[in-house]
Specification:
Chain lengths: ~475, ~270
């Protein structure tokens, strides 16, 4: 932390380190982003008595779930892959009348209703993007903003704390295969796939075995002239329903028994073998990892379409020629369109990388993927990929942060216990099995392991009896 | 209340309550005065209709959008055999979250216990517990002493039948008291049992102000229980001497609802 940067000539307005005037927002907390995680932060901070300024680069709430937003990855067919009880805010249930797995439009209306119900919109500055977040001394922060798109002047405000909720599903991760630049066909990222018209009547190659890749392959199976689906390795495909109940609810029932992981894995392997069966019969590779070891693929339709010939499973892409794609087994495909469903890269351009304790690979090392050890008044919300919905986790993250900010004033000794937890736990994984491809999946968590640790943190932060 | 907020909710994730059709009665003010919506929750055996008699219109007349919900198995809601407090609380929280703005929850009788459960799942703006039956053996002893024939069957899974002398003061005309008492249904046997033994409600989320109101002459809730309930939430009860258990139906129904609305108007609630 630097020393206080000082004041302007009249001694009234504080200045940033490079001498710009700052409007001091006192004890107000800044939230960056009004998506699902940002809204929860705004609501929970308000509930704990804080003033909140939330900056949102778009003109509406909902972040990634708002298909009108240019950074939104949703396509016409996007549905939740976790069922309602595992996907909703813990204190604002989705309506009983909704289906088990709501479509993205319902999720957006849910977020809009949440903002309406808790009167959050007056605290959000829409059409405003954050350019820089810098420490201002005394654990406070200077946040510089401007109108989205860069026109207009910048302004800087000083905040007591900052919650970064800018999302992690908007900066596409594009693979670079040999010969890809000179390929004459069309290559798009999965985030640019919006509706079946884009594939209608075309030969499509979908690259990537994640949930997005499988969803796009399933849509292409019914609309495209031909669909190849290229995956690097074998996966477990969980259907959306087991025994007529949403699969995650069945799994939550099993979790209640608190069985050891190996037993749960054996149980689940058994169930999947019974329900889904032998994948190699379909020409798919055998899974090279145990179930629960990587983010679950929830798709009951993929195998159906493989069986109907709508999807042809193929191995990994080796390289591109000018007019074709060569696979690792030497086969040559001639797609009109290649869809790279290869995921996203979290990005925080407005923050000095050092502030999030990033490691050599640029990955933040945060306690519970939320709290940086060296910055007590900074938190990242929603930077997790759980085997449930993100909303419940993001909710409790912001409750913990709000409680921490309160406790730090009220009972510094008790607050110290939490800080020890933060600095001791920065390297945790909160996952019950090590993922096979760990560098890429560094923020994947198991919701039960993660919430159990968050429960301990919240217990440390319990409000001081008045 | 005991312990802290529990965030591992395996039971709720694994077995969410089945959706049911719910009866909601409402009375809305002519214009939006910016006052929070009220959601009334009836006690066991009663329905939203009990509030539609007087309180909903009166609250709307004072500018509050007023709603009442019948938990499953009550009033005109779909049946809920085997329902527990968790399911009743689910019904209340579902309706609260469906309102346009953050709501005030008002629970009467055992509905106050349902509200206390609901407060752990929904950050209400405020809560009012009217003649609260928060369970335990005290109210059972009182009920056995006053109305053994109506109470004993409930111990064996039968309906709990409260007599009109337990429910209303003598000021209420007899034919009305009989009519109201005849309208009563029953809660599920499991929920009745839960009145005696249940996990204490988790702490309320969002730290809402809580008001307790009742009558010292209530023949269902002893005056001591009122004081205790109020102390649990850090206050003293608002008392309306001379009234029966059913404050919203008794002859002087206007006094308690006016006091509650005054508390909401004056308090830090708005």
């Amino acid at each position: 932390m630097s020393t206080d940067p000082g004041y302007d000539a009249n001694g009234t307005l504080p200045l940033t380190r490079d001498g710009r005037a700052v409007s001091d927002r006192g004890g107000t907390v800044c939230v960056i982003g009004a998506g699902a995680s940002g809204l929860a932060a705004v609501k929970n901070l308000l509930e704990h008595g804080f003033g909140v300024d939330c900056y949102e680069r778009e003109t509406g709430v909902g972040g990634a779930w708002n298909w009108r937003h240019d950074r939104s990855p949703v396509s016409a067919g996007t549905h939740l892959i976790s069922s309602k009880p595992m996907s909703q805010y813990p204190d604002f249930p989705m309506p009983d009348a909704w289906p088990d797995y709501p479509a993205h439009g319902l999720v957006l209306s849910y977020l809009e209703r949440y903002a309406e119900h808790f009167e959050l919109k007056p605290h959000v500055w829409f059409g405003t993007e954050v350019v820089r977040v810098e420490p201002a001394g005394g654990d406070r922060w200077d946040v510089t903003t401007r109108s989205t798109g860069g026109c207009g002047s910048q302004r800087t405000s000083r905040y007591a704390a900052v919650v970064v909720a800018n999302g992690h599903n908007w900066a596409p991760r594009m693979p670079a295969y040999e010969g890809q630049e000179s390929y004459r066909g069309e290559i798009i990222h999965g985030s640019a796939y919006k509706e079946p018209n884009q594939v209608r009547g075309r030969k499509v190659l979908v690259v990537g075995g994640g949930n997005t890749g499988c969803d796009i392959a399933v849509e292409a199976a019914t609309h495209a002239a031909r669909c190849w689906h290229s995956t690097r390795r074998g996966y477990w495909y969980a259907p959306k329903y087991l025994m007529g109940r949403p699969t995650d609810q069945v799994n939550a029932g099993v979790l209640r028994w608190r069985l050891p992981l190996w037993l749960r894995q054996r149980l689940m392997h058994r169930v999947l073998r019974l329900v889904v069966g032998d994948l190699t019969r379909f020409g798919l590779p055998r899974p090279d990892h145990g179930v629960f070891q990587s983010h679950p693929i929830v798709n009951g339709q993929l195998l159906h379409h493989v069986g109907h010939g709508g999807i042809r499973p193929v191995p990994e892409v080796a390289r591109f020629t000018r007019h074709s794609v060569i696979l690792t087994d030497g086969r040559e495909l001639d797609p009109d369109l290649v869809v790279m469903a290869t995921g996203y890269e979290p990005r925080f351009e407005f923050l000095d990388p050092g502030l999030l304790d990033r490691d050599a690979d640029g990955r933040p090392r945060l306690y519970l993927h939320t709290f940086p050890a060296a910055q007590p008044t900074l938190a990242v919300a929603g930077l997790v990929q759980p085997d449930s919905g993100v909303l419940p986790l993001a909710h409790w993250q912001s409750v913990a942060f709000a409680r921490w900010l309160r406790l730090r004033e009220a009972a510094p000794q008790r607050a110290a216990r939490f800080r020890e937890r933060v600095s001791g736990g920065a390297r945790g994984r909160w996952k019950d099995a090590t993922p096979t491809d760990s560098p890429r999946h560094w923020f994947e968590v198991s919701h039960d392991v993660y919430l159990r640790e968050l429960q301990r943190a919240l217990d440390d932060l319990k409000a001081v009896p008045a | 209340m005991s312990g802290g907020t529990r965030i591992i909710r395996s039971r709720e994730w694994a077995r969410p309550p089945a959706p049911v059709r719910r009866e909601v009665r409402r009375a809305l003010p002519a214009g939006d005065e910016g006052k929070p919506p009220l959601l009334f929750v009836p006690g066991f055996g009663s329905g939203a209709g009990a509030f539609a008699e007087h309180w909903l219109d009166h609250a709307a007349g004072r500018g509050f959008p007023a709603y009442a919900v019948s938990p499953r198995g009550h009033g005109l809601s779909a049946p809920g055999p085997g329902a527990t407090l968790r399911e009743y609380a689910h019904d209340v929280v579902q309706e609260a979250a469906a309102l346009p703005r953050r709501a005030v929850l008002v629970g009467h009788g055992a509905g106050a216990l349902v509200v206390a459960y609901g407060l752990a799942r929904y950050p209400a703006r405020a809560a009012v517990l009217v003649s609260p039956v928060l369970g335990g053996f005290g109210p059972l002893r009182a009920a056995l002493a006053r109305n053994p024939f109506g109470t004993v069957p409930a111990l064996f899974g039968g309906p709990l039948r409260l007599s009109r002398r337990q429910l209303f003061s003598r000021e209420l005309p007899e034919h009305l008291a009989d009519e109201y008492a005849d309208r009563r249904g029953r809660a599920s046997a499991r929920a009745q049992w839960q009145l005696l033994r249940h996990r204490p409600p988790e702490p309320a989320v969002g730290d809402p102000p809580v008001l307790v109101a009742g009558s010292p002459d209530d023949r269902v809730v002893p005056a001591k229980a009122l004081t205790e309930a109020a102390r649990r939430y850090g206050g003293a009860p608002l008392l309306f001497p001379g009234m029966g258990h059913e404050l919203m139906l008794d002859a002087r129904w206007r006094e308690p609802i006016d006091a509650i609305l005054d508390w909401l108007d004056k308090g830090s609630v708005l």
